[in-house]
Amino acid sequence: MITSNWIYDAIIYTYALSLLFYFSDFVDINRRAKRMGTGLLIFVWVMQTVFLIIRMINHRDVPIFTTFEFMFLFSWILVTASLVISRFFHIEFIVFFVNLIGFALLIVNMLNDPTSSTALLEWEMMGNILSLHIFLAACGFAALTVSGIYAGMYIFLHHRLKSRKWSAAVRRLPSLERMQRSSLTASVIGVPLFLLSLSVAVVSVMLGERHELLLDIKVWFTIFSLGLYSFYFYKRHRGKMTGLHIAWLNLICYGTMLLNYALNSLSGFHRWMGV
């Protein structure tokens, strides 16, 4: 658990999963993923509404418009607005980034509750936030590794087929189309996880009042790496590059992520985290 309130934890986990599905639809028009994301987002809205009602009932003696209530209400409004946009205007780009802001607000807000008698100590809460950052980054890196492996297999198979060099290993490989699709799917999973991890990292820096760490090379190189993956998605969506060039671009993106990981030893942020 991140906090001492299971409803709040459930909201955060469900919200993160919803963002994952929305990103999948945003990148490659996946209606099934959009329906899953919308369903989870509706569930988030219901839990937030229930949380607010319980909050007002249990804390009638506390001013309702503390910083905690204001930020939580703001997040609830963002979720409501994104559902309206998704239903009537179908602008997935706006929906995803509005909810990314809403998710970040919930993370920031965890240290603002003045009424909870069972709240975790601030240092322990910070530790839990940093653990969430590490977990999201590890999952994202694993997904991008799978994507990179598929891209490498695509290049290998493409070369063997073009040179007409058949072998038992070649025959056991999946088709080029399947590998390209699997590589994209793994990237679609990994990139939003890294984006959420970066959001949590920035939030932890702000909560720890170490704003100078926002200028850390690790933070900016992570942004650059995610921007390169965004370029990969754009080129993949345009469909004007060959599958081989797309696979090479994917490997270049993964290479930047490997370099990004190597920068941990030079990162002031990770020394501050103790990682």
From TrEMBL:
- Write the protein's name: Cytochrome C assembly protein
Its transmembrane ranges are 6-24, 36-57, 63-86, 93-112, 132-157, 184-207, 213-234, 246-263
Keywords of the record, alphabetical order, are: Membrane, Transmembrane, Transmembrane helix
Taxonomic placement: Bacteria, Bacillati, Bacillota, Bacilli, Bacillales
- Superkingdom assignment: Bacteria
